[in-house]
Amino acid sequence: MNILITGGAGFIGSHVVRRFVNQYPDYTIVNFDLLTYAGNLENIKDIEGAPNYHFVKGDIQSEEDVTSALTKYDINGIIHLAAESHVDRSITDPLVFVKTNVLGTSNLLFCAKKYWGNDFEGKKFYHVSTDEVYGSLEMGGGFFTETTAYDPRSPYSASKASSDHMVMAFFHTYHFPVVMSNCSNNYGPNHFPEKLIPLMIHNIIQKKPLPVYGKGENVRDWLHVKDHARAIDTIFHKGKLGENYNVGGHNEWKNIDLVYLLCNIMDEKLGRKAGESAELITYVTDRAGHDLRYAIDASKIEKDLGWLPEYTFESGLAETVDWYLQNQEWLDHVTSGAYRAYYQQQYAM
Ligand code: NAD
Ligand code: DAU
After folding, report:
1. Ligand 2: which of 185, 201, 215, 247 to mutate, judged by most atoms within 8 Å of the beta carbon?
2. Residue 349: its pLDDT value, please?
C-alpha cells in the first residue's frame, strides 16, 4: 500500500510512522505534517533514511497540499492523526482547533474522495480520535463504550467530535471506506512536555514546581504509546469499515497519585532522598470545565480484533522516565525551541 500518515512528526504519529516503516518494508509511507509547534522531526530521525519513507511538509487544510501528496505517491490508504491536541491550548485559542481539527479533517476527506473518485476498492481512510468526545464519567461510574453518546465539553473535544461526525457522515452518505478509533491518554517517549507526564518529568529533573490542577482528583486511563501504535496497525488492517473501536489500557490513575508515583520513581533514579521531589508539588487553579474521569471499555477491539495492551504501567512508566533521562538533549531542544532548527537544516525550509 501507499499510505499517507498525517501528523507523523507529532507524539503518537511518530510512533505510528516508525512502526509502519519498519513492519511493512513493501509499503510506501508518506509522513504529511505541517510541523506546528508540536511537530518535531527529531522524533523520527532514526528512520528518515529508510527507502520506503518520505516526508511532505503540508497543511491538511490546504486542498493543494493534500491533493499534490495524494497524486505524487498514488495514495490508497490514509491514517489521520494530525490535530491540535492540547486541551489547555483549546481553552485559550479555540478557533485554531476548529480550523485544524474540523476544517482540516473535512478537507482531507474531501480531497481523498475527489482523488479516489467512486472506486473505493482497496482504499481506506482511518481517523484517529479520542475518548474525550464521550465527555466525563462519574467517579467509579462505568466506562466509555463505542455506543456511549457523544458529550464533548472542551473546545478540543468538541472539535474532535465534530471531525468524527464528518468522517462517519462520509461513510453513510458516500460509502466512503472509513474506520475510526477513540483512544485514552497516551504516555511514552517523545511526548511533548506540555502534557501531564512529560511536564512532571521535566520539572522534577529541573527541580521546578509540579503544577497539579485543582485537588488532583481527576482520573485518566493511561496507555503506552507503542500499544496504541500497535492498535492502530491492527485496526487499519483488520477493522471493519464504518466502525469505531475504543482503545484503552484498563489503567485508571488519579492525577495526584500518578504525580507522587513519578516523584518516587525519579527520586530513586536520580539518587535523591525519598520524598524530595514530592515537595515540589504545587496545587494550582483548576482547568476550566475539567473533565472528572475518563475510562475505556476496550472489549470490542480485544474480542473482535485480538488486540491487548502489552505494557504494564509499572514497566512502561519506568521505561519512559529512563527515556527522558537518557534523551535530555531532545527535552532541551523542545523546551528551548531548538528542534525547529533541526528540521530547517535537514529539509532546507
Ligand atoms: P501532537 O500534538 O503531538 O501532534 C500533532 C501533529 O499534527 C504535529 O506533528 C503537528 O505538526 C501536526 N499538525 C497540526 N496541524 C496540522 C495541519 N494543519 N496539517 C498537518 N499537520 C498538522 O498530537 P498527539 O498527541 O500525537 O495526537 C495525535 C492524534 O491522536 C490527535 O488526532 C489526537 O486527537 C489523538 N489522540 C491523542 C491522544 C493523546 O493522549 N495524546 C489520545 C487519543 C487520541
Ligand atoms: O484522553 C485522551 C486525551 O488525553 C487526548 O485526546 C489529548 O490529546 C491529550 O492531550 C490528553 O488530554 P488530557 O487533558 O487528559 O491530558 P493532559 O496531559 O493535558 O492532562 C492530564 C490530566 O492532568 C488532566 O486531568 C489535567 C491534569 N494536569 C495537566 C497538566 C498539563 C495537571 O494537573 N497539571 C498540568 O500541568
Report:
1. 185
2. 61
Distance CA 87, CA 287 (A): 9
Active-site residue (options: 156, 311, 339, 343): 156
Residue (of 132, 182, 186) closest to 157 by Cα position: 132
Our answer to whether residue 291 is catalytic in this structure is no
pLDDT category, 238, cuts 50, 70, 90?
Answer: very high
Which H or E element spans position 131?
A: none
Cell 512532571 -> residue? 200
Distant-in-sequence, close-in-space partners of 127: CB < 8 Å, separation ≥ 6: 80, 105, 163, 164, 167, 178, 179, 180, 181
What mean pLDDT, rounded, does the chain reach? 97
Examine the residue annotation and report whether 332 is marked as an active-site residue of this protein.
Answer: no
Q: Which of 12, 36, 87 to mutate to test ligand 2, by most ligand atoms within 8 A of the CB atom?
A: 87
- Domains in the chain (CATH in brackets) are 2-186+222-248+289-311 (3.40.50.720)
Distance of CA 331 to the CA centre of its chain: 18
Helix (H, G, I), strand (E, B) or coil at 185: strand
Q: In what order do the strands lie in the sheet with 244-247?
A: 53-57, 28-33, 2-6, 77-80, 124-130, 178-183, 244-247
Distance CA 256, CA 216 (A): 5
Q: Judge if the beta carbon of residue 85 lies within 6 A of ligand 2.
A: yes
Q: Are 210 and 159 in contact (CB under 8 A)?
A: no
Residue 195 per-residue DSSP state: S
List the one residue out of 225, 115, 245 whose CA is nearest residue 178.
245
Q: What's the pTM value of the predicted model, to 2 decimals?
A: 0.98
